Each structure stands twice: as structure tokens, then as C-alpha cells.
Amino acid sequence: MLREIIRSAEKFGPYFVIAPHVALAHAPRQAGARKLAMGITTLDPHIVFHNQANDPVRYVFTLSATDADTHLKAMQEFVQLLSMGDFYTTLDRAGSGQEIMAYIKSALAMNKE
Prior knowledge:
globular
């Protein structure tokens, strides 16, 4: 899957830099998605992808979904997270992946109520 992400970036440029400081690196599900998953990477130092509106990138997210319905639901939840101001603070201050997962589960559960 990583090869496909790199190939897409080389072919299409930094289209995956979707918001200020945020990149959503992805490839078609046919490239090897086996289950629903999200990866989160914080970058220090930040990286310039030559996307004038949104550089430099601090956060890189990857999304894996096996079908269109799962992909759509995951994207909706991802957009919800990006709209929460304290999400980025949590990413910056978290000492472990478990802290980030706890935040995500709590935040998404509160949005469903």
C-alpha cells in the first residue's frame, strides 16, 4: 500500500494535504486494504509538501477500508475529529497511542449522543 501512496503523490502532487497542517495519505482499497484502520503520525520537524494553502504538514493520517460503506463512515468520523479543536492538542501532548485512542473513542461517542 505504501508504494501506491508514494506513486499517487508522485503522479498527482500534494493533493492529499487536505487542511492546514494535515495530510491524508491514501491509496485505492485494491492496493491491499485488509481491515478498517487508521494510522496517525505527528511530524517534528514539520514537512513542506509544496501545498501553499496548508503547509507545513504536522499530522499525517492514513486510512484503510475494505469497502465503500466502511470508507464513508470512517471519513465522516475523521472529519468530525478534525473539526474538534482539542484533537490537535491531544495529538501533540499524548504520551502514548492509548491516550489518543481513548480521546477518539470518547469524542466520537459524545458526538453520537
